[in-house]
Amino acid sequence: MSHKIDNITQYFNISFEMGLKQIVSFSLNNPRLASSAGRLYFAYRLAERKRKKYLRQGVQIPPMIIFSVTNDCNLDCAGCYAKILHQNSKKELTATQFRAVIQQAKELGVSVILLAGGEPLLRPGLLDTIQEFPNLIFLLFTNGTLLDEAAIQRIKRQGNILPVISIEGDQQDTDLRRGGGIYERAVEVFSALKQEKMLFGTSITQTSRNFELVNNEEYLIDMMDKGCKVFFFINYLPIDPQTRSLALTTQQVMRHLAILEELRMKFPALFMAFPGGEMELGGCLAGAKGLIHINPQGEVQPCPFSPFSDANLQEVSLLSALRSPHLQVIRNSGDRLDESDGACALWKNKTWVEELYKK
Question: How far apart are CA 130 and CA 98, in angstroms?
């Protein structure tokens, strides 16, 4: 187990170092960004020490939390996993509770919080709250429609937020899934962020239909010319069985990973794949081995695709939730949670996970 944990820590350290180099390259004409880069690097190293301390005490603190901050969304994307898996009749975390969770994460040594939804910018006071945590790195996964000039300037001033605009490839595929005009709006946001000399990225949902396009070097060069320097490739998960044909084949997953290796050697950008990239680490990152998921109601879950929980942060502390025996079983089930085919292991074993939590 310790060997895999070391691999995961190394993976996040390397990824962070690559991201930091991007920030430094952007900061040549932006002293504010250079200052943020130095501060975040120092904070990351301190957080890493905290995680190691807790690990010696038998508590696994993940380097990253995926925090779905609201179920609300202004789009209705086809096949949206959040729309299907994360609907909940319970009340979402209050502003006070939301801030408390982030404070606890910081104190435990979490370094990166991926803000998801719904559309995270629909959560009232989101930017106000995260402004209180300048030493945490926030990845803002957004559809981009609410990134107006005021929001962009606010994010630029805060210096620790990486906007990640979600698309599906080109205009045809993006508008087909997300609605007419969404791709055009994303391109406008790319242009505005580039003009402000901000580091930003894109999240591309990979399907069997758009695979050739989004892995084409000319397409990626065009995206880099638009200003994107961070690429998240998310393999489509067929929550709706009728969309199973859109899932990548094992051959496509393996080909994609080979393509990413070539891209990393050729271009000054950060390329990451989920869940395919986990194959390089020896398996699934869920269950706090590399990450956990917190839903809008405060339920701590193994990952966004495994909506089971035995702890709610409206009732217990984050540290208590991370002591979950269920999360420990998941972390220690590497043989079962094999991802050598590039598919989400917890989703493939969802019946096993559900039974685990019923116990």
Answer: 10
Gyration radius from the chain CA atoms: 19
CA angle 300, 306, 308 (to 5 degrees): 50
Per-residue pLDDT of the chain (359 residues; tens, 9 = 90+): 444 445 555 665 566 566 656 656 655 566 666 677 778 888 988 999 999 999 999 999 999 999 999 999 887 777 676 666 666 678 999 999 999 999 999 999 999 999 998 899 999 999 999 999 999 999 999 999 999 999 999 999 998 999 999 998 888 888 888 888 999 999 999 999 999 988 899 999 999 999 999 999 999 999 999 999 899 999 888 877 788 888 888 899 889 989 988 998 898 888 888 876 565 555 678 888 889 999 999 999 999 888 899 999 999 999 999 999 999 999 888 778 776 666 788 888 889 999 999 87
What span, in angstroms and rounded, lies between the C-alpha atoms of 65 and 304?
10
Question: CB count, 10 Å around CB of 94?
Answer: 11
CB neighbours (10 Å) of residue 321?
24
Contact in structure between 278 and 285 (CB atoms under 8 Å): yes
Sign of the alpha-carbon dihedral angle for 187, 192, 196, 198: negative
Give residue 255's Cα distance to chain centre.
22
Asked if 295 and 307 touch (Cβ cutoff 8 Å), the reply is yes
Q: How many CA atoms lie within 13 A of 263 on its CB side?
A: 23
Distance of CA 143 to the CA centre of its chain: 14
**Any bridge partners for residue 167, and if so which?**
204
Give the β-pairing of 291-294 and 300-301: antiparallel
Here the tokens at position 182 are 């969404």
